[in-house]
Every structure is written in structure tokens, then in C-alpha cells.
Amino acid sequence: MTHTPPWRRVCDCRCILHHRQPRTTYNESGCACTITCTTQPITLLTNQWGRALFPDQGGDLWQVPAMANGTWDWDRATEIDTRADVYSIGLVIDHLLRQAANVLGALPD
Q: What confidence tens digit (pLDDT) does each residue in 92-101 have?
């Protein structure tokens, strides 16, 4: 099996905007992608914050708020940037997520 980066994969989670399409942005209005969508990079679910955190292909850490019934508020997804209260924590989490992704990507098929 050949590794394909998430941003080159097509949506497989039946989101009406992205199903069988590449997903190039994370905060499109009306997006219904799940965290387990093929286009979604490695993800950390944070019950403490009520969000999911994930790195994007551009090197930024994003957050998406959780909603009821395991859905996600993609309209409110944002990059965790220097203005965020959790920016310094975000840097550590981003580093660890990328490290985990590299380890998983290096596993033999």
C-alpha cells in the first residue's frame, strides 16, 4: 500500500460537499466531513477542550469544535495561531502529532 498524504485523498465520509472530492479547506460552510474522513490528517480528540486538533498540509495546527452526536462544527474550524490562548500548548501538540504521523508512515506495509 502506498502512502498518500491526506490532502491528496478524496472524501469517503459522504459529506455532501466533499464526497469523492479532494478536500482543500477545513472550514467550508456546510461541510459535514467526519474526523475519520480519508482527507482528515492524524487527529487528536480533546475531551477537555471539546475539540479535535489536527495538523494541516501547510504546517499549521487546526481545531474544530465538537457538536452533538459525534458531528463537527467545520464552519468554526480555525487555525491555532499566535493569538490563541493555547498557542504554546498547540506547538507541543502539533510537534507530537507530526512525530506520530512520521512513525506511522514509516511502518512497513
A: 999 999 899 8
